[in-house]
Amino acid sequence: MDLRTFLMLLHLCEGIGNANELRVAAFLRIYQRLPTKNELTQVLKLTPAKSHKLIAQLECAELVEQLRANLQVSQVVTILDEDYPLKLRESFRPPTVLFYQGKLALLKKPCLAIVGARQADAYALEALTKLLKPVLAKEIVTISGLAKGVDALCHQLTLAANQSTIGVIGTGLDSAYPRQNRNLQAKVAKAGLLLSEYPLGAQPLRHHFPERNRIIAGLCDSILVVEARHHSGSLITANLALQNNRNVLAVPGEITNDISCGCNELIAAGAKLVSKPDDILAEFANQLI
């Protein structure tokens, strides 16, 4: 078994977790060989009982079949691969395995993440319509999470401009959440790139979405927040992006509208206020030369 396949199988094991996967990936990268059972136990700091359970999973034929099923409908990039995106590799807790459909090369282009409220109103549509057209004309790739509201607007406006967009989802590639975005998700996969660290059959569990958000924050060069409530997931994503030394931008909103208070708070804390396309383009000046 090659190192890459071993890492993918480990990723499919129950209860392994990203931190443990990264420890094993580091072992594989340093020693360029598979660990022995004892070494795997030591690297993961497992009790004998947990070690026995993990080894049994790795040796199970069903796990190999599960991987084969995933490879039939998607491609895979691992943190051991040369084409694993550099920005993500250097980010906070990078995923060791990503399943994808579409054009992985898009991740080498300048990328703008766009996040915001699921209950986005007409102001979000108006703001994004105004801001994105000149940005997309420069072939800056947009990234979002294929949720309702601002996420969907980001993908829709990008596709309508015949430009490239990346969707990062919190389910397997065979699922769409929300279901109403299934057609949009298919369009993103066909015209752009669809990514998930979750295998086929993975459901939209609550904890999947903060994990998805860290990937969005790691893939982008800059992140734009459009309408966000206080303590919203969009603000968490923006803070993760800041930890990764990404540029954080925000569209200001009415002080009487709760859906804008998060953006106004970001601006007060030092995020760049965006009121025109050039405010975004300035962040990509060195990449667009």
TrEMBL record:
Any coiled-coil regions, as ranges: none
One BP term from GO: DNA-mediated transformation
Start and end residues of each Smf/DprA SLOG domain: 75-284
InterPro entries xref list: DprA, DrpA_SLOG
Domain of life: Bacteria
Matching SUPFAM superfamilies: MCP/YpsA-like (SSF102405)
Name of a matching Pfam family: DNA_processg_A
NCBIfam families (UniProt xref): dprA
Family stated for the protein in its record: Belongs to the DprA/Smf family.
Protein's recorded name: DNA processing protein
Organism of provenance: Ligilactobacillus agilis
Gene expressing this chain: smf
